[in-house]
Amino acid sequence: MGVFSLSIIIVILLLIIFLLNFYRDPKRTIPKGNNIVSPADGRVIRILKINANKVKINKGFLGKIETLTKDIAKECYVISIFMSPFNVHVNRAPISGQVKSIKHEKGKYFAAFNLEKSLINEKNEIIIKNEKVGKVKMIQIAGFLARRIICSINKNEKVNKGQRMGKIVLGSQVTLILPSKKVKLKIKKKQKVVGGETIIADLR
Fold it and tell me: Model's pTM, two decimal places?
């Protein structure tokens, strides 16, 4: 076997290992109680407390989105979780409730004459209404290059905390918008979180 053939076999094996790792979907132990869990595996990169009508969320060096916050509450926490290509990419419901809306927006493809719009990522916004906390928004944000968001739930569907809701292909981000007066945060910036297991906040 030549060096070239051996190199191809090694590359193929590494690709298979990567794909098996990427598409894994381990079982999770969902915590009981009145709390909000992480919608994704990854690391907390942003915790903001705002009282504006909308917020601009930057995604690393390249990419951003804009989203309303007034449809959740006057004062909100904005919590962003970065998912590397090595994290589990299944997204889970942060709280039990009814899906009030799902809004998907395509990203803008590169255009040299309008760099500002070119950096807008694909996103999928899901609003869940819970009897105790009110509305919670979960935003799936696709990567700048790999743009594929999978959402496996429907409007008006009832979801359970920790339930699988879809996934994002390759490196990506999930952002939560929570009504700050209704929750008490339990996480901090740079903390690693596990989807469906790590408690993001307790309900007040």
Answer: 0.83
